[in-house]
Design a protein that fits this description.
Blueprint: H1 2-32, H2 34-40, H3 48-68, H4 72-101, H5 117-136, H6 142-166, H7 190-210, H8 214-239, H9 244-284
């Protein structure tokens, strides 16, 4: 029993580590490819190279804070805001421009123009939601916590369900959360694994949206995304050795898996709250 309790105590930190590890990795990439990062900073912003370094440091600090659980609620909130700014200031204008230029080309959804297209946009939105989930579950206001977790969870589940649907229509980008690059390299039984992954993502997302077995569904989402990301990266690495974009894409998938596990933890947390309150009343009585 003690071993199980120790495992359960470490589990939340581990799944938060999956999210935080991407932030530390992103910091390294911001410094290694500072000129590239500066190039995708909006042109109207002054000191673009400064912002590349600044955001890299901010991501690292937020990630470490979440890992060591020091001011983690504040760090997660600020991280969510920072990632949301990435979505609004970088991804959204880029996608709008691409769609205007090539409205009849469905591949615009996955075009690599420096930001990765719609699926990269949705991944970043998922990370925004995951960061806000970490912050919301620590809120002292029970009403705010319950409503915010419910809304954030529904949005996250909706994106996962959409990723699942894509597996049945855009098989050239699967298995795994669709990336900006084709899966042109060999993966055994690729279509089978693609359809299975899509079904699991769709099923998990829908179950959360309709409020059925939410904790188990979120755990299934996290396990599916994490296992597929780790497995397919071995094939990606073999096919594109030395390509940092593939590693970055995989790290994002791992962080999204962390978000799914964090979501599952919020359902467990909410279910434990009434029991904890009852125990406290009994002790006082």
């Amino acid at each position: 029993m003690n071993d199980r309790n120790e495992t359960l105590q470490w589990l939340p930190r581990f799944v938060e580590f999956l999210l935080a590890s991407l932030m530390v990795y992103s910091c390294i990439m911001h410094f290694k490819f500072a000129q590239f990062v500066a190039g995708i900073v909006p042109a109207w912003m002054p000191w673009r190279l400064f912002w590349a370094y600044f955001t890299g440091v901010a991501l690292c600090v937020a990630g470490i804070s979440i890992i060591v659980r020091r001011l983690s609620r504040l760090a997660a909130t600020l991280l969510g805001v920072l990632l949301l700014l990435f979505v609004l200031l970088i991804h959204t204008p880029s996608m709008v421009s691409s769609i205007i230029q090539r409205p009849g080309d469905i591949n615009v959804l996955w075009s690599f123009n420096g930001t990765g297209g719609v699926n990269n946009f949705l991944k970043d939105v998922s990370l925004v939601l995951a960061a806000f989930l970490v912050a919301a579950k620590q809120s002292l206001d029970s009403t705010f916590r319950q409503w915010s977790l419910r809304i954030l969870g529904a949005l996250f589940a909706g994106i996962m369900a959409l990723f699942g649907v894509e597996h049945f229509f855009y098989t050239s980008y699967t298995p795994g959360i669709p990336s900006w690059s084709f899966v042109s390299f060999w993966i055994p039984w690729r279509l089978f694994w693609g359809y299975l992954t899509g079904a699991l993502l769709l099923c998990g997302g829908v179950l959360i949206l309709i409020g059925k077995s939410e904790r188990d569904a979120a755990a299934m989402l996290g396990a599916t995304i994490l296992s597929v990301a780790a497995t397919t990266y071995l094939f990606r690495m073999a096919a594109h050795l030395g390509n940092y974009s593939e590693l970055t894409n995989t790290m994002k998938d791992v962080a999204v898996a962390g978000g799914a596990f964090i979501l599952g933890g919020t359902f467990s947390f909410n279910q434990r709250r009434p029991a904890i309150a009852s125990e406290a009343v009994d002790e006082r009585g």
